[in-house]
Design brief:
The chain is α/β, with parallel strands linked by helices. About 30% of the residues lie in helices and about 25% in strands. The protein contains 10 helices and 15 strands. Strands 3, 4, 5, 6, 7, 14 and 15 form a 7-stranded mixed beta sheet that branches. Helix 2 crosses helix 3 and helix 5 (about 195-205) packs parallel to helix 6 (about 220-225). The termini are close together. The mean pLDDT is about 95.
């Protein structure tokens, strides 16, 4: 088969469509013929040499895909050859075929076409596991989403609203904030011109956010604590603003707050399967009902993967960037 390979870490030109060995479906796995994959920031980091795949994972980029099952490995039940699926991956989505643990498969939801389904697995699993399974967002609470116009952000807005939360977002520029508002965001903060702590306090009568979904890490740590409400929960899922920062524990104690930090790619198979099962139970009915939808900025042929990576790095997009195979 062919896949996007990275012979040497570097810029987008390091991504090369090359012939590679065919994958084989092992115990508990299926082989998926890929229709589409999606570009995630982790793929950019992997291309640059900063984020190696976990042991045993495919060496090729791509943390999610959609396609059709072509082979069932030993011990797989509940799926059939020809089923249209989307999948959460540890790597390998930028390829013609990929082996996937059966527990990380989802059926393509009703009302979503096969290509667009590639925009769903990673963002839905990330948001549901962090905002709901870990941080426990409840109806009536306030959720602050940093990077509201990103793939993660556009999904977090929709899921927050679907459960009855009030959603605040940060994004850069009026156009991106307008798109966030279209998805249901209630409080819009342009991080280039406004202080999100002040804006959030003003909009919530001084209360702050019950849950914050953060992609920035160190740069926002102190301000995120200031923005948290009493009993607030900060979920860190990215380090775009650095990895080290000082933490005033008195703020945590005073607010009885909690900080969690997770990655999805390196979790054990059992944890990923539990997350996917929860997504299928709680989120897939919302997608089928049209209350949640994939937000796709653009779709590129896999041969134009370098172009898609440049768009990701420029952060000019809203929602997901897809690659068709």
């Amino acid at each position: 088969m062919h896949a996007i390979t990275i012979e040497q870490p570097g810029g987008p030109e390091a991504l090369v469509w090359a012939e590679v060995p065919d994958p084989v479906a092992g115990e508990g796995e299926v082989l998926v013929e890929v229709a589409a994959s999606a570009v995630n920031r982790a793929d950019v980091l992997q291309r640059q040499g900063f984020y190696d795949p976990p042991p045993g994972a495919s060496p090729y980029p791509g943390l999610e895909c959609s396609g059709r099952i072509v082979t069932l490995g030993p011990g797989v039940s509940g799926w059939a050859v020809g089923d249209e699926v989307c999948a959460l991956l540890s790597g390998g989505g930028y390829a013609e075929r990929v082996a996937v643990p059966a527990g990380q498969l989802l059926p393509v939801p009703q009302g979503v076409d096969l290509v667009a389904a590639a925009a769903l697995p990673e963002v839905v699993a990330t948001v549901w596991s962090n905002v709901f399974m870990v941080a426990g967002l409840r109806p009536g609470e306030t959720l602050l989403v940093h990077g509201g116009s990103s793939g993660i952000g556009t999904m977090a807005i929709q899921l927050g609203k679907a459960v009855g939360a009030r959603v605040a977002v940060t994004a850069g520029g009026k156009e991106k904030l307008a798109r966030c508002a279209e998805l249901g965001a209630d409080i819009l903060v342009d991080y280039r011109e406004q202080d999100f702590v002040e804006e959030l306090r003003s909009a919530t009568g001084g209360a702050g956010a019950d849950v914050i979904l953060d992609i920035m890490g160190a740069k926002y740590l102190a301000r995120n604590l200031d923005a948290l409400a009493m009993n607030g929960r900060l979920a860190v899922i990215g380090l775009q603003g650095g990895v080290k920062a000082e933490l005033d524990l008195r703020t945590l104690l005073t607010k009885r707050a909690a900080i969690t930090a997770t990655t999805l790619r390196t979790r054990p198979l059992e944890e990923k399967a539990a997350i996917i099962a929860a997504v299928r139970e709680h989120v897939w009915p919302l997608v089928a009902a049209g209350r949640i939808r994939p937000v796709v900025h653009a779709t590129y042929p896999i041969a134009e993967v370098a172009r898609a990576h440049r768009v990701m790095e420029a952060s000019t997009h809203v929602g997901k960037l897809l690659l068709t195979v």
